[in-house]
Write a structure and sequence with these properties.
138 residues, alpha+beta, single chain, HIT family, subunit A
């Protein structure tokens, strides 16, 4: 179902013109309007889901094959040296538009903004804490 007040629903379904690079019955892949690199694209489901938790399993199962297809096209046609696939859920995680979307971000050696890459720092959890969390998630 489309959500009338959702900008990404409108983009994914052609209600607002965009630079679309791929489309099928389930998804539209568009160029990001504020790209962090040459070729930065967004995979948008045509049907609305606020986030991963709400995304139907059938739709979710089609995402990685599509991301791989787009990533391979970027490698072949844009000659990128690396690639990020990024998907945020919730404001705390950096989600700013509440329509599920996946970023496919080509990266290039020597690019000025490579220092802006995602960097992970250890949470410094003890082995006991890691074990407790593992038990909670098992």
């Amino acid at each position: 179902m489309k959500k009338d007040d959702c900008i990404f629903c409108k983009l994914a379904n052609g209600d607002i013109p965009t630079n679309m690079i791929y489309q099928d019955d389930d998804f539209a892949v568009i160029m990001d309007a504020a790209p962090v690199s040459k070729g930065h694209a967004l995979i948008l489901p045509r049907e609305h889901a606020d986030n991963l938790y709400e995304l139907p399993d059938e739709t979710a199962s089609k995402l990685m094959p599509l991301a791989k297809k787009i990533a391979s096209r970027m490698k072949e046609r844009l000659n990128c040296d690396g690639l990020n696939i990024l998907q945020n859920n919730g404001e705390t995680a950096g989600q700013s538009v509440f329509h599920f979307h996946m970023h496919v971000i080509p990266r290039y050696d020597g690019a000025a903004n490579n220092s802006d890459l995602l960097k992970f720092s250890s949470a410094n959890l003890s082995e006991g804490e890691i074990s407790d969390i593992s038990s909670q998630l098992s």
